[in-house]
């Protein structure tokens, strides 16, 4: 997998106590990496980080990405071969309550990581993760591409757009002839087992179903590019692996570098167009696997959240040969299966997660995706 790029390598991972970060930490361990985690304490109970007992498996550091000195110290101590920056304030509605903290975390936190990387004197591939919501959302029916305008109507989305702008600026200003290579990644709406966050539709569904209550749905007609968490993570890993290596037949740039500089840029990682479904369709698909009911709790006076959002992933397909593995129904089924299994046998949660990684990789291999066959 991933051309063995991570075996016996050191990886610095911010946000490892979160949902996506915990999945990525576990996958990196399976790939043979030494993982150095940097994050706040898990914000939910339960948390996937604790369910996987990751504190015992990695170099686990509790710290705040807003603390520039702590970030610099941690990266200097780890001397990483790879960096994945996932630490963030990830919730739209919370960003209305905490706009300054959202910007401090999502913008300044990203800058702190890049400033620490400037001091690194060794080869390193860094993938800095933002979101599909970084685009100026015009409620288009066609998907957004990496060159489309950035923006946002809420503090969360606009903070991620600002993070993308700073990444591009730092890359041009400080990393042109630097051993650290930087790319950014924009993923669609991610679902999967082990997400326990508030104000996210899948964990809200699971909590309601476990309590034998109706699922309250705020925006049933809003459309999102739903994808399993393993989809963008495979993209992040393959992008980092490719960043770390010259092309087989590289083209030399004006500066003489043999690194594929097209990869030092932004990438969308989203599902097939058929997976762009309404929240209503997502909830009804979940209820096929966990019977229950839902109620419309939409409120016309609620804070703004985008209604329509699609991503185009042509760039990832052409430059990385990356494409999604599971379709919409498989994604939802795998998600609900994990919650069912973990509720029945909590001590086996790590085994269920590893089983899904194995199944996902096997499906990718059948599709002959390069990262699964390299």
Describe this structure in words.
By secondary structure, this protein is α/β, with parallel strands linked by helices. The chain has one domain (2-373): Rossmann fold, CATH 3.40.50.720. The protein is 41% helix and 15% strand. Helix 3 (68-78) runs parallel beside helix 5, helix 5 (99-118) packs parallel to helix 6 and helix 11 (328-344) runs antiparallel to helix 12 (349-366). The relative contact order is 0.14.
List the helices and strands and how they pair.
Layout: E1 10-14, H1 19-30, E2 34-39, H2 48-51, E3 59-62, H3 68-78, E4 82-85, H4 92-97, H5 99-118, E5 124-129, H6 155-174, E6 180-187, E7 189-191, H7 201-210, E8 215-217, E9 223-228, H8 230-243, E10 266-269, E11 276-278, H9 279-289, E12 294-296, H10 314-320, H11 328-344, H12 349-366, H13 370-373
Helix pairs in contact: 3-5, 5-6, 9-11, 11-12
């Amino acid at each position: 997998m991933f051309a063995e790029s991570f075996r016996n390598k050191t990886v610095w991972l911010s946000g490892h106590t979160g949902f996506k970060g915990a999945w990525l930490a576990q996958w990196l361990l399976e790939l043979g990496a030494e993982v150095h985690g940097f994050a706040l304490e898990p914000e939910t109970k339960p948390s996937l980080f604790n369910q996987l007992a990751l504190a015992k498996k990695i170099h686990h550091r509790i710290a705040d990405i807003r603390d520039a000195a702590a970030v610099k110290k941690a990266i200097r101590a780890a001397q990483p071969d790879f960096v994945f920056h996932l630490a963030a304030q990830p919730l739209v509605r919370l960003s209305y309550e905490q706009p300054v903290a959202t910007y401090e975390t999502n913008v300044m936190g990203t800058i702190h990581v890049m400033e620490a990387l400037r001091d690194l004197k060794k080869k390193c591939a860094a993938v800095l993760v933002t979101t599909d919501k970084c685009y100026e959302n015009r409620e288009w029916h066609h998907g957004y591409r990496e060159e489309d305008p950035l923006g946002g109507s809420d503090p969360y989305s606009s903070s991620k757009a600002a993070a993308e702008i700073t990444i591009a600026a730092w890359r041009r200003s400080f990393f042109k002839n630097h051993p650290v290579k930087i790319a950014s990644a924009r993923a669609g709406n991610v679902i999967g087992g082990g997400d326990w966050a508030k104000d996210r539709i899948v964990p809200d569904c699971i909590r309601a179903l476990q309590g034998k209550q109706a699922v309250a749905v705020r925006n049933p007609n809003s459309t999102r590019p739903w994808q399993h968490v393993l989809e963008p993570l495979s993209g992040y890993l393959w992008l980092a692996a490719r960043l770390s290596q010259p092309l087989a037949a590289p083209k030399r740039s004006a500066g003489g570098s043999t690194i594929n500089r097209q990869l030092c840029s932004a990438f969308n990682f989203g599902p097939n167009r058929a997976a762009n479904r309404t929240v209503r369709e997502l909830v009804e698909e979940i209820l096929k696997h966990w019977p229950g009911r839902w109620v419309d709790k939409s409120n016309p006076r609620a804070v703004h959240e985008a209604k329509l959002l699609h991503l185009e992933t042509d760039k990832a397909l052409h430059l990385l040969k990356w494409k999604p593995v599971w379709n919409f129904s498989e994604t939802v089924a795998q998600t609900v299966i994990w919650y069912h299994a973990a509720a029945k046998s909590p001590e086996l949660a790590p085994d269920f997660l590893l089983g899904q990684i194995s199944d996902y990789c096997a499906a990718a291999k059948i599709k002959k995706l390069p990262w699964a066959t390299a």
